[in-house]
Amino acid sequence: MQYKIGDVAKILGISPDLLRYYEKKGVVMPMKGKHNDYRYYDFWDINFLLDCLWFKNFGFSIDQIADMVKIPSSDELNDLFLKKEDELQATIARCELLLRRSEEYRRDLQLSKELLGVCEIVESPEYIRYLNRYTDTYRNSPTLQKLSHDWLGLMPFTHRCFEIEKDDLLDQGGKDYAWGLSLGMEYVKLLNVSTAPPVVHIPAQKSLHSVFTNTGKGNFSPQLIRYMVDYCGTHGLTICGPARGNLLCSVAEGDGLTGYFEVWIPIEEANQDVK
Prior knowledge:
Blueprint: E1 3-4, H1 5-12, H2 16-24, E2 31-32, E3 39-41, H3 43-56, H4 62-68, H5 74-114, E4 120-123, E5 127-134, E6 137-138, H6 142-152, E7 159-164, H7 166-170, E8 178-184, H8 185-190, E9 200-202, E10 206-215, H9 226-234, E11 237-239, E12 243-253, E13 256-269
Antiparallel strand pairs: 1-3, 2-3, 4-10, 5-6, 5-8, 5-9, 7-8, 7-12, 10-13, 11-13, 12-13
């Protein structure tokens, strides 16, 4: 019994285009009609295509399959599957990291509600970061461009981070800030990320912690966390470094996009009983 390409496509649940591609790659060679260009497949061709689907569903490419179906040795197939197992293990590890990051992001979303406008004293996280935008200007040196491209490829593990110098925090008219990307130390080793300059290590330290929002284009400024500076003044806290933070999430609220930002301001307590 012979079958046309459309019949085989229905039997196997694949597209005629895929069958033509298998033919192009020399994986299966159906007979051609004597008086037309119709392709005719027999049961042997279909069995051969089932082998192809078997390999395809393991994740092998069509080019790999074209070679695999011609391999004369089971030992060679064994070696290919060992390599595939390594790839699958790497995929599993990546998926586990993505699952972990998804859970962290959901916690961030909850935090954006619970800590909005609230000040608390905590230990800030340890992380690495680089900065490449100062207020509205990007610094596009080849080194920073390469670093930026590499770290953008690490999203969603990297965060969009900002830094506001102490002088701009304390100045009621302060408006300068810097932006870049950050990565928590727990991911640095897991993702094998270099910490060489211009990457900077930011240690954990006692900090005033809060969440604030910014809506609209061009409205980000140090004045958005003025309430934290005022809190320090009324609670006997000394600001001892730049404010650092990251974007938690962005949501379409009202007439514009609202960003929720987590921020830490390093402090020293004059009175250890301060809460």
